[in-house]
């Protein structure tokens, strides 16, 4: 019968993961219903246009990590309102600053205290690379993978509404200025079908091409096996200087994108250096509003008090890693440590995956149906100020969505707080 297609193997992995969660989770493990604070717009002022002169940063330095945060007091209401005030940059290059008030913060309860765990793993890929390359277009354009998008500055993002993309703030701003190219920012959505022939003799067609397609799927399976074995396991007798069939197949099947211009970009003031006093990592997120809504399903936001206490403590995300150009890369892993605002995790990743939406699966309240929701933004590989004394260590970091951040992102998406009362 031949080797199992890559897409089928990945479906098996997802099914096993879901089955494990189903067997270990009681009906009590549902999405918690949070009463989130309410953001009110105070006033908006016009600022001078940005220079758009900053260069993209593959790695961030000096951010205050979990250990560093544990020595700091929690932000006051005044500080939080300052951090959640935000800049909006429009496609014509103009910029505004909007200040906000936060109401009902004291009603948010049971949010965890900062915690620390001395066990750490270093660098972007830990041991054997466990990432899955989704090179089959028909698979990568299906939910939940279809929610992943590519940002023209080199990052990834996730659709959180029909026309809004959540990504990392450092993908458009370095803390001092907006990136070169951010003024003409674009978002790439994976195309579902190739423009080439829809049948017959066309390269992307059906009919006579069926046999070749199956052969290509076998090659993709071989590629995934080699990836899981650290690059080993190639067939014998293959020349050293000759590309493997799987590599050629993966290259020929690279996904194509449909690019859409960004209408406006919103970033929390807490991201800017010197404002948050070293806490910028907590606010490494931004929302991009598209000029035209793609006909693609989006993923909702969610809030959880702890990831480590959830079934298996696993998180999932997909992005466009630089070392696998043009291909969507999916991974899942355990969280090694968490604080109020950050997640340290074992997920294998490379530059380019920054800005990906980190999601988990839980049951909907009162139902047996499982639903995926975004609970964080993958910030990427960072050099972290561990104890606040300047000593740097490198970790893979994700920014978690707190009730206050949920309220802000929801406000950006809907334009008012009436739809953002409960997470």
UniProtKB/TrEMBL annotation:
One of its GO terms (molecular function) is serine-type endopeptidase activity. InterPro entries: Glutamyl_endopeptidase, Peptidase_S1_PA, Peptidase_S1_PA_chymotrypsin, Trypsin_dom, TRYPSIN_HIS. Residues 193-215, 238-247 have a biased composition (Basic residues). Residues 141-182 form the Peptidase S1 domain. Residues 1-20 form the signal peptide. The keyword Mitochondrion does not apply. Keywords: Glycoprotein, Secreted, Serine protease homolog, Signal. GO terms for biological process: proteolysis. It is found in: Secreted. Residues 189-260 are annotated as: Disordered. The keyword Phosphoprotein does not apply. Residues 227-237 have a biased composition (Basic and acidic residues). It holds the Pfam family Trypsin. GO terms for cellular component: extracellular region. Belongs to the peptidase S1 family. This is Inactive serine protease 35. It comes from Cynoglossus semilaevis (Tongue sole).
């Amino acid at each position: 019968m031949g080797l199992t297609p890559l897409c089928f193997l990945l479906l098996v992995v997802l099914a096993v993961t879901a089955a494990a969660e189903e067997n270990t989770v009681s009906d009590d493990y549902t999405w918690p219903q949070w009463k989130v604070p309410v953001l009110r717009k105070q006033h908006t002022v016009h600022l001078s246009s940005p220079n758009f002169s900053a260069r993209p940063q593959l790695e961030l330095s000096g951010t205050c990590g979990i250990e560093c945060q544990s020595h700091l007091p929690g932000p006051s209401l005044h500080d939080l309102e300052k951090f959640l005030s935000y800049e909006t940059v429009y496609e014509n290059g103009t910029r505004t600053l909007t200040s906000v008030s936060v109401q009902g913060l004291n009603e948010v309860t049971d949010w965890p205290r900062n915690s620390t765990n001395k066990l750490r793993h270093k660098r972007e890929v830990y041991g054997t690379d466990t990432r899955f390359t989704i090179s089959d277009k028909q698979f990568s354009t299906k939910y939940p993978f279809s929610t992943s998008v590519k940002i023209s500055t080199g990052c990834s993002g996730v659709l959180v509404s029909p026309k809004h993309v959540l990504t990392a703030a450092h993908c458009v701003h370095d803390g001092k200025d907006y990136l070169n190219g951010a003024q003409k920012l674009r978002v790439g959505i994976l195309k579902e079908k190739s423009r080439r022939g829809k049948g017959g003799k066309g390269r992307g067609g059906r009919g006579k091409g069926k046999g070749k397609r199956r052969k290509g799927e076998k090659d993709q399976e071989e590629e995934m096996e080699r990836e899981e074995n650290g690059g080993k396991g190639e067939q014998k007798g293959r020349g050293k200087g000759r590309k493997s069939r799987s590599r050629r197949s993966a290259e020929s099947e690279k996904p194509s994108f449909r690019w859409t211009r960004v209408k406006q970009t919103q970033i929390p003031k807490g991201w800017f250096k010197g404002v948050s006093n070293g806490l910028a990592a907590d606010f490494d997120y931004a929302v991009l509003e598209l000029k035209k809504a793609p006909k693609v399903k989006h993923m909702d936001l969610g809030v959880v008090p702890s990831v480590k206490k959830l079934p298996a403590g696993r998180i999932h995300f997909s992005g466009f890693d630089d070392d696998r150009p043009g291909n969507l890369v999916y991974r899942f892993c355990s969280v090694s440590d968490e604080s109020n605002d950050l997640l340290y995790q074992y997920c294998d990743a490379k530059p380019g995956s920054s800005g990906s939406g980190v999601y988990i699966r839980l049951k909907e309240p009162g139902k047996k149906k499982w639903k995926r929701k975004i609970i964080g933004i993958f910030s990427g590989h960072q050099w972290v100020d561990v104890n606040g004394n300047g000593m740097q260590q490198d970790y893979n970091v994700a920014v978690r969505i707190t009730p206050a951040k949920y309220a802000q992102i929801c406000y950006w998406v809907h334009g008012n707080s009436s739809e953002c009362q409960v997470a």
